[in-house]
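#dry-run=false #mode=assembly
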Amino acid sequence: MSRTYTIKDNSVENRLFLNRIVVAFIVILLLSSGLIVRLIYLQIVGHEHYATLAKDNSIKIEPLVPTRGIIYDRNGKILAENTPSYSLELIPEQIKDIDDTLQRLKTLLAIPDEKIEQYQKLRKRQKRFVSTPLLMNMSDEELAKFAVVRPFFPGVDIHVNLVRHYPYYDLASHVVGYVSRINETELKSLPEAEYQGSKHIGKVGIEKSYEAELHGKTGYAEVETNAQSRAIHTVNAVDPDPGADLYLTLDIDLQKTAYDALDIYNGAVVAIEIKTGGVLVFASRPGFDPNPFVVGISNDAYQTLQTSEDQPLYNRALRGLYPPGSTLKPFIGLAGIEYNAIGSQNRLFCPGFYQLPGVSHRYRDWKKTGHGTVNLTQAITESCDVYFYTLASMLGIDNMHRFLQQFGFGEKTGIDLVGEKAGLLPSREWKRNQRNQAWYPGETLITGIGQGFTQVTPLQLARATATLANHGKVVTPYLVNKIVRANATTHGPQVPQEALPLNPANIDKIIDAMVNVVHGDRGTAKVIKNNITYQIGGKTGTAQVFNIKQDAKYNENEIDFKLRDHALFIAFAPADDPQIAVAVIAENGGHGGSVAAPIAGKVIKQYLAGRHEN
Amino acid sequence: MKTETRREQFEPPSLIGSILRKLHIDIPLFIGLFLASLLSFVILYSAGSQDMGVLIRQGARVGLAFTLMTVLAHINPFQFKRYSAALFSIGILLLLAVLIMGEIGKGAQRWLDLGFFRFQPSEMIKITTPMMIAWYLAEHPLPPRWKELFIAGILILVPTLLIAKQPDLGTALLVASSGAGVLFFAGLSWRFIASIAAILAALAPVLWHFLHDYQRARVLTFLNPEADPMGRGYHIIQSKIAIGSGGIYGKGWLGSTQSELDFLPESSTDFIFAVFAEEFGLFGCLGLLILYLLIIARSLYIASQAQDTYSRLLAGSLAFTFFVYVFVNIGMVIGVLPVVGVPLPLISYGGTSIVTLLSGFGILMSIHTHKKFIPH
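#status=ok
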């Protein structure tokens, strides 16, 4: 149509419109004919076929739920299993007088009224031939009592269900996690067909991270039903694929040692097998009993867990953020000699404090009288703060940031657990973006002794220690070693260890200094050097919980327990061929040397003793 | 208005007829809609497992819908035209409100809770979008030129995307087609229609990328329902069985075994056609289709008789959208279109759609009964 006109031309528009009406109606008729053709195909051509199907549509498809995979530790000890749980179920249509039966059961098993009421409600919603539970999780006593009189209760029977059970209770609750009822939000995002029969889903820990593997593949049975949709017999079934069993790198006995050793302290212990990255210990204290979550934890119990000051639900090893304190010094020291900021034999005088030029503020050493003249080894051994203030100021924040990043500080380790925290490795850029402030020289100093903005997770600390002990070959931690399916075994996410561009001689110097921390006369962790045939390298640390004023004196005995410093310790052993790296954080433990180091010592000794036996 | 009353005097005086004319009701259209609603009760009684509660609730909605239709039929179409832009803007704002509330509430939301009832802005948009486009195009010479096409395209795209984001693919589709309907009746060139179709075909993979997982699953299921008999394919397989087993004559009213045995999900709502087809067979289906076609034919006739551009475009689009409803729903139930949540118009159980539909027909009646006599 030509477009020469610009003013409205009613007769042209009129014709155009009528034309379109006719076309529209023709299109509508054509499309409707399409529908009719399809209907003819379904209702005449396909009628016989579909009529048969409809008659057989007494065939109902029922999901067959796969058994959830079992979780083992590295030695095959069961961390999560499926145990039978017994429930008392009634089939109403097989019971002549249901009220009488309920009354008799009530007296026999001392069933509370509310359970009877609950059952009555449930029963009304179900078809009469469906077995509905009255009692769940029956005790042995209840089972025995009913078993004796069972013949007098037609239509009442005991049913067995598999229920997830965690035999180690609070010991590995954070790392193994738990399953619980699928909630509505989860239901929406889940593959509908896969979860048709499943009631539970992994909520945290390995149970969540490996949900797809543990769950398995749902099968289905085509069940023939009669007109009331009562199942008559199974026509055809596709069996479910059971969930895969998982073998973790975790050593539950070692975990127990670590967990028990934390004793009165809240905190975390992480131990990593250096050569592989396999996590041996992943303990967070306090733990919690995951078993009530499976059957449905009561609101009160959940509230108690949620509001407890000790935060038992919180996975400290994975998500706890702590200042690394002096445990950062070996890494800063290595940066110093790697970047040639200082020679390893250069000596500095420590008067007990450090002052920036032209500033009156004194950055104090933990030892008021000072350490005298120290070199790098002595500075690490005795944890001299002034040496590291000086070194930090020579390195500058940019170098420290760049160097520490290589050891994985400030980023997730990539462990196969959901919910990991990245921690914080401060930099000029970070401060500008997050706080809109410039970086101050004083902040460089305190970063050098692991205070200030820096925050690490126990897992990051263990990983960095492992990487250092591994002579700069980056260790990536993982938990699942083997995924065992019916027909195949796959291995967990082992990552090849990539080497950092570091001078081996420099690393040896740091390792020697760390050995001195444990074995030297003036070492801050010498308490753990006894009764071993090999050497342990370590570094103590103390993380301030609150700031003391410039002139105030920190007196441990005078302050509230909750405000005491956190005790930290990182270690590896044997020093000549490192196998295990450990990081310990004991909240409010006060001293790294006296509280945290013995915990790491116990873990290392037990692990290496076990290896020597083999 | 005077000419109109004079014209009425020439019509044969029949009591009901004159009452309906006073009410501005179009009799043929009214009869068609009334029959469809009656049929709705008949089928719902069977599909809803003979639950009187379902019928009572549906009855209340149908009553409300017919009342609203009558009220709208009373309003002069000039008023619709006058407030088109305002109503459209309010609708868009409400859509945004729903979207923002959904974001805050961390979940999909389609309605605003006004305390005493829940209101779905997307339903209102189904009518205000064609009103807006018709209003805009009526101001310009037709067929529309590039600039008008571009603006009209944006006006259609905004509500469509907002609704698709809820996510409600079915309603988004209906809104888009109501806008597209206006453009079509405005004389959009065939070449343009062809190129749009080509572009859409080329964009399909990109669109696929933006679909939600469940929406993709629906499309995949449509292509091969038997692949997933436990999950998404179940609806379509069961619905085909129900329809096919109905045969030519059907199993008779209340004779549906598939919905009775709970094999057929959503048998009262989106899949009600399957129950109807099973009980009334091919003849019943043809009858229902013819009823729908008669309603559409009458609506298109009303459009063709409309006297101003705005009324024509709006009436044509409303008729066309009604057909899209029918086609998409039946197409989905008989397995030739993917499953999108579009109810069978006037028949399916569920409140909002019937109210919106009859509001549309109220506007059609208003257009038809408020004509001025224009001498040529």
